[in-house]
């Protein structure tokens, strides 16, 4: 026989009203009584009916997450952290892979089926922002790709990441350093490039070259192949993401150019297989756990009580030095 709220009330020695308030996380319940109710629920193995709780509280207990792709282990780590953190607060996570505006308008979030929405690295956040504000759905943007102080966001200091990656190469003794950027439309790409240029200027150096790429292995491979065909190689490359870096290394290795003896390579993101790659990739690690947990914290606070002003949280990435970078060879050693 299914255990009811009345059984919990009887077991705890408290009223049904008190039990209901505990189930709905009301702040008016004394801590001693809350503990009695929770212990009774545990003893009886009571699981409140989700539909009943939703009707009573006016909440669904579901948080929506919108993202463009699942083919990225860094984003996957953020999603995992979000899911785990929401579970700690008795929320369920609903995913929507939205690659265009039509898919967003058809998504479940348009019918008030969620209590809030997390946007993960949206390429065109304006569409989402306008619609979510219109429907008064609380939301937070993680890895916001636009300078938009009017919305709650969690961002990474991509400028610092680009600076630290380039400074690492300079400190190793490199002076001929190239950069392959990501899409110019993305703020993260522009900020990483800005950090690259700032580190070089500080050292009194000029870029070997700045190439426009995309966040893909193919992009890195094709650009590195052009350098090889031209006979002019940098001694080091800062790639805007790990996928570009993998393509660069692949192209060089196919031509017998050694990493890092001949060319050093730094990536960005610290994809899960960066450490397993040969040579293991030096990269800039995104603080994925902090991003996911802070996003949930901000959103749940918004759901309870909208703030008077929007909050922007920023985290620093961390340079992870592995095998793909080293000191440049002396000119008398070069045989490329």
TrEMBL record:
Domain HTH lacI-type residues, every copy: 3-57
Gene3D superfamilies: 3.40.50.2300, lambda repressor-like DNA-binding domains (1.10.260.40)
InterPro entries tied to this protein: HTH_LacI, LacI/GalR-like_sensor, Lambda_DNA-bd_dom_sf, Peripla_BP_I
Keywords: DNA-binding, Transcription, Transcription regulation
Highest rank taxon of the organism: Bacteria
UniProt keyword annotation of Transcription present: yes
CDD domains from the UniProt entry: HTH_LacI, PBP1_LacI_sugar_binding-like
Source organism (scientific name): Paenibacillus segetis
Stretch forming the signal peptide: none
PANTHER family associated with the record: HTH-TYPE TRANSCRIPTIONAL REGULATOR GALS (PTHR30146:SF109), LACI-RELATED TRANSCRIPTIONAL REPRESSOR (PTHR30146)
Name the record gives this protein: LacI family transcriptional regulator
